[in-house]
């Protein structure tokens, strides 16, 4: 009898059920999409923040002081210590290697072009490297997305170079010209514009700079761009003071400090340091945007819950006559409430499932159109979302059901609401 | 009510008002429910619109923590003209900061080269907030020393000597600075100490100009005009990163705002439609008593408009409160209420309310009053 009541109610009141069901579907859909976007926004924005460039720098441990003024290196190229280029692919083997967006070694040397001293930077552009069985590419193109080249990027194994735009204008060279320095001729593959000191410099494949310096395998500094977690009090602690499980937890969190620690482990005789301008501000911006999205998601959940409750309350309120009839025929309040709750449960599960799928698709569309990458929906979310949908539907119905059940059947049947 | 009620004559005028009032009082439970939905929807909409408009300014402020977005460098390694800094400061006014830097390579007592910079330390402190400094210099002859330079010149924190072009100066180590980049190898002095010792004037000014990319571009142009001796460059790393993150955040926020506003509008629509539909009896009785279609439509439409306006007014106040609260919690600065969004919220609310009154009216108009009164 109970099942039949519920079944017939759905069969005969298709319009009303459709209305309430639509409200639930929409509410759950919006809630799912918002939760998915809010939980994933940290990851997405952190990737966007890599546009600010490297957040870690690795230098030789026993290095002399930098002599840099306004980005121009005054240190004699032969001075100080070097990192070994052969150690670089090992970064791919460290614990947080998936968080390393890219790295770029740098070796500044001085060359004489037409009687003038010019700084030449040896770099990786997009160098194919191998670690174990894995092939990957890295270089300035992934660490410095704001570098723009008119012309072509040189191949990493060529003798071609990039000319900074101000230097090119000063010297009167353009793309395709040949330029002589270091005892041989180099082709200008493109003109580089960075808005920084590189505009006055030559940028060449690392091997070219090493050849000019006469030190194969030498790297002055290594810039690393890594996805990190905003720093907190625990992240700032000195790893030397941490014991056992605490150290493991620190080591296995992608704090900029723990990534620096691991870089020092894989690259011998190195000192890794966070670039505070990038690393510190990144955490601030990230937590602001994440916080904003969390608060907005809360607002969205509230609006969705209200929409669902309102729809349920309206749907039940319209059926006072039915309640009166059931009660007049001797149904207890509990039995009447049970019918309504069963209907609400069914609506919530059905509407919730469709809404979840719709919300997942919506989140995917948002991710693809705004961030050019997928927003993955965690399936763990499904039972949680359904549970919330059922809860909200019940909460929305409860008041209306209580009022409908308390009603004297006589009034209800006479239509005096 | 307007022209319609006037045409129906004076007695009807008061009757019309009375009907409106009594309807609200007698069914206050349902009326309150409908109004509540209206208020919540208007509040959420107001909050989202306020946030959407304001978040750009908030994030611009946040991004200014990345430091300078414009650099002015004197051409050919010369010093900037004496009034250069004043010119720059008068152009950026209160919407930014400027810190001058002068550099020399000095020698330590054991003959090592080290870069020494003279600057306005108070400005640097405000401009480069990511600098991790143990203590800022407060006296003359105090130096702020990079961590790597400190290990070289004053491992025990004792006073140290530096020489430049035969002139020697004795400095106290006030504190150390750590940034992870070239600052760690430098020594920073106040401009006065630096100029008394070396006589070298600033060649670089780092400028943080706040505002949108267009405003920053205008600032760069104004600076270029005022200082033809210097090269004014945007720091593209900062400008492009900022534009990119900001654009994506705003796009996400816009999508969320649209979703939330649509959901709450739908919620209002379904609630109000329920509330109008529920009163088909009133409708039937009015019709049976000989009220014209016009009067009845006027009645329901007025009711909906009033409800929309009242709901929007309350909702606007609450929504501004929510936006201010979110601003305070998340950005530690209140969101400035935008009264420009009030007409939009008001019109939107009334439009949704009218729509939800008119839709059931169409359905009801086709039904005979008797059918409704019989309860079918």
Descriptive terms for the model:
heterodimer, A: 417 residues, alpha+beta, 2 domains, 50% helix, elongated, B: alpha+beta, rod-shaped
Can you describe this structure?
The complex is a heterodimer of chains A (417) and B (376). Chain A is an alpha+beta fold and 417 residues long. Chain A is built from 12 helices and 16 strands. In chain A, the strands form 4 sheets. In chain A, strands 1, 5, 6, 9, 10, 11, 12, 13, 15 and 16 form a 10-stranded mixed β-sheet that branches. In chain A, a hairpin with a 2-residue loop joins strand 5 (100-113) and strand 6. Chain B is an alpha+beta fold and 376 residues long. Chain B folds into 2 domains: 2-62 and 245-373, no CATH class; 69-234, no CATH class. Helix content of chain B is 60%, strand content 17%. Chain B contains 13 helices and 10 strands. Chain B has helices at residues 2-7, 10-26, 28-63, 84-92, 121-127, 147-153, 191-198, 213-226, 236-277, 280-288, 293-331, 341-365, 369-373; strands spanning 70-74, 96-108, 113-119, 132-133, 142-146, 160-164, 167-178, 186-190, 204-209, 230-234. Chain B starts with a helix and ends with a helix. At the A-B interface, helix 2, strand 2, helix 8 and helix 10 of A face helix 3, strand 3, helix 6, helix 9 and helix 11 of B.
């Amino acid at each position: 009898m109970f099942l039949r009541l519920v079944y017939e109610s759905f069969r005969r009141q298709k319009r009303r059920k459709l209305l309430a069901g639509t409200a639930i579907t929409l509410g759950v859909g919006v809630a799912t999409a918002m939760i998915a976007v809010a939980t994933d926004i940290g990851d997405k924005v952190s990737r966007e923040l890599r546009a600010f460039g490297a957040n870690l720098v690795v230098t030789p441990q026993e290095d002399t002081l930098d002599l840099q003024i306004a980005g121009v290196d005054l240190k004699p190229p032969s001075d100080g210590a070097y990192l070994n280029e052969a150690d670089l692919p090992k970064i791919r083997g460290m614990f947080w290697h998936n968080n390393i967006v890219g790295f770029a070694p740098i070796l500044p040397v001085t060359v004489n072009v037409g009687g003038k001293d010019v700084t030449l930077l040896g770099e990786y552009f997009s160098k194919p490297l191998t670690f174990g069985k894995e092939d990957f590419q890295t270089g300035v193109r992934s660490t410095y997305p704001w570098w723009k080249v008119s012309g072509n990027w040189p191949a990493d194994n060529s003798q071609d170079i990039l000319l900074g735009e101000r230097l090119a204008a000063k010297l009167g060279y353009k793309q395709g010209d040949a330029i002589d320095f270091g005892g041989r001729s180099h082709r200008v593959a493109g003109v580089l514009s960075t808005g920084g000191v590189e505009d006055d410099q030559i940028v060449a494949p690392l091997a070219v700079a090493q050849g000019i310096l006469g030190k194969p395998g030498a790297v002055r500094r290594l810039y690393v761009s890594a996805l990190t977690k905003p720093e907190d009090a625990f992240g700032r602690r000195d790893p030397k003071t941490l014991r056992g499980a605490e150290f493991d937890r620190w080591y296995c969190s992608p704090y900029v400090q723990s990534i620096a620690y691991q870089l020092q482990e894989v690259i011998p005789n190195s000192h890794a340091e966070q670039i505070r301008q990038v690393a510190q501000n990144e955490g601030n911006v990230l937590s602001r945007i994440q916080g904003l999205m969390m608060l907005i998601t809360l607002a969205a959940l509230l609006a969705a819950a209200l929409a669902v409750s309102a729809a349920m309350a309206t749907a039940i309120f319209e059926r006072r006559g039915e309640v009166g009839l059931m009660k007049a025929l001797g149904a207890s309040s509990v039995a009447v409430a049970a019918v309504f709750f069963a209907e609400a449960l069914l609506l919530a599960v059905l509407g919730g499932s469709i809404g979840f799928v719709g919300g997942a698709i919506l989140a995917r569309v948002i991710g693809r159109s705004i961030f050019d990458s997928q927003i993955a929906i965690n399936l763990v979310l499904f039972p949680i979302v359904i549970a919330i949908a059922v809860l909200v539907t019940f909460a929305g119905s409860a008041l209306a059901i209580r009022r409908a059940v308390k009603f004297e059947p006589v009034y209800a049947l006479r239509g005096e609401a | 009510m307007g022209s319609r009620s006037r045409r129906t004559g004076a007695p009807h005028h008061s009757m019309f008002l009375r009907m409106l009032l009594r309807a609200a009082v007698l069914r206050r439970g349902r009326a309150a429910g409908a109004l509540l939905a209206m208020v919540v929807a208007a509040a959420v909409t107001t909050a989202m619109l306020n946030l959407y408009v304001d978040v750009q300014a908030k994030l611009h402020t946040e991004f200014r923590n990345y430091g300078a977005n414009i650099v002015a460098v004197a051409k050919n390694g010369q010093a900037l003209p004496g009034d250069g800094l004043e010119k720059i400061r008068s152009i950026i006014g209160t919407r930014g900061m400027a810190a001058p830097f002068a550099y020399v390579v000095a020698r330590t007592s054991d003959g090592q080269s080290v870069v020494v910079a003279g600057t306005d330390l108070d400005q640097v402190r405000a401009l480069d907030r990511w600098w991790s400094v143990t203590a800022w210099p407060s006296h003359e002859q105090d130096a702020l020393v990079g961590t790597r330079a400190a290990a070289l010149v004053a491992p025990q924190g004792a006073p140290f000597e530096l020489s430049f072009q035969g002139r020697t100066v004795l400095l106290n180590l006030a504190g150390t600075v750590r940034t992870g980049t070239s600052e760690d190898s430098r020594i920073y002095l106040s401009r006065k100490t630096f100029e008394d010792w070396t006589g070298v004037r600033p060649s670089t000014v780092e400028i943080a100009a706040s505002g949108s990319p267009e405003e920053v571009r205008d600032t760069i142009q104004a600076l270029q005009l005022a200082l033809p001796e210097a090269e004014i460059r945007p720091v593209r790393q900062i400008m492009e990163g900022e534009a990119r993150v900001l654009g994506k955040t705003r796009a996400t926020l816009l999508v969320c705002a649209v979703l939330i506003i649509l959901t709450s509008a739908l919620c209002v629509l379904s609630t109000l439609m329920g509330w109008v539909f529920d009163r088909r009896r009133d409708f039937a009785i009015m019709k049976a008593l000989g009220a014209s279609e016009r009067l009845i439509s006027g009645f329901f439409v007025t009711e909906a408009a009033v409800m929309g306006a009242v709901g929007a007014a309350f909702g606007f106040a609450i929504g501004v409160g929510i936006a201010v609260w979110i601003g305070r919690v998340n950005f530690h600065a209140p969101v400035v209420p935008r009264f420009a969004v009030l007409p939009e919220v008001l019109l939107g609310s009334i439009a949704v309310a009218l729509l939800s009154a008119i839709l059931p009216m169409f359905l009801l108009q086709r039904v005979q009053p008797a059918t409704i009164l019989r309860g079918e």
